[in-house]
Amino acid sequence: MPKRAVLPLLPLTLLLAGCSSEKLPALGFPRGVTDINDISLSLWQGAWIAAFIVGTITAALILWAAFRYRAKKKVSAGAPEQLPEQVSYHLPLEIIYTVVPFIIVAVLFYFTARDQSTITKISPANVAVHEIDVNAFQWAWQFTYPEAQGKTVTGNPEKLPTLYLPLGERVRINLTASDVVHSIWIPAFMMQMQALPYIENKFEFTAQKEGTYPGFCNMHCGRNHSQMRFTVKVVSPAEYQSYINSLKGGVA
């Protein structure tokens, strides 16, 4: 591709690469609901920027080749069609379209692995966190609060359970399943994780905005998968403690 075709793309590339996460579109996701959002959103935005740049360059190459090598004149009736010069191998070009995709995948893999490691990091044993045991089953959820003497809130498709979380305090979710593979998904938190039978997965986060958010199972788990929903309610620490006390008293 000639330099004059690439040069107009450079300012756009530098502009997008130099923008902070706050200045870029949120792509439909809320900002700052949890500390996970701050990490996931930057990764999501970076992936879209990379896709936009690669797509723009690819489109420019296609259009340049289409116009640069288009037929200069119509072939007269009955005259044999003249094909352009055929080239079997072009080693520099083949190296480029092998190495460039590898670099793109390697960069995306690095940032994804780095952010995933941060998101799934579990606090040491000496760090205080609120633990909540979440169990998925066909087709509802169970929330068990060790702080409430192990009391469990069990939902069903007709009565969705509510997962209470304290604002500004660290929470650890211990995730399991009773039957088949499920997946907990809270879109506003930009976080999901599989719930597996006989295996306990864990993740932590700190809720940063009070509010009520929908939660879903994000793994097709059977006939009533679409009804496997729950509600997340982020409340003040005082309200959370009041809820824990109400569970201790037997009122869910």
Helix content: 25-40%
Strand content: 15-25%
Number of domains: 2
- Quote the CATH topology of the largest domain: Immunoglobulin-like
Any idea what the CATH architecture of the largest domain is?
A: Sandwich
* Fourth CATH level, the homologous superfamily of the largest domain: Cupredoxins -  blue copper proteins
SS class: alpha+beta
Query: Biggest β-sheet, characterized?
Result: 5 strands, mixed
Q: State the strand order across the main sheet.
A: 3-2-1-5-8
Q: Can you describe what's shown?
A:
With 252 residues, this protein is of the alpha+beta class. It has two domains: 100 residues, no CATH class; 119 residues, Immunoglobulin-like. The strands form two sheets. The chain has a five-stranded mixed beta sheet, with helices on one face. It has a five-stranded mixed beta sheet with strand order 4-10-9-6-7. A hairpin with a 2-residue loop joins strand 1 and strand 2. The N terminus is likely disordered.
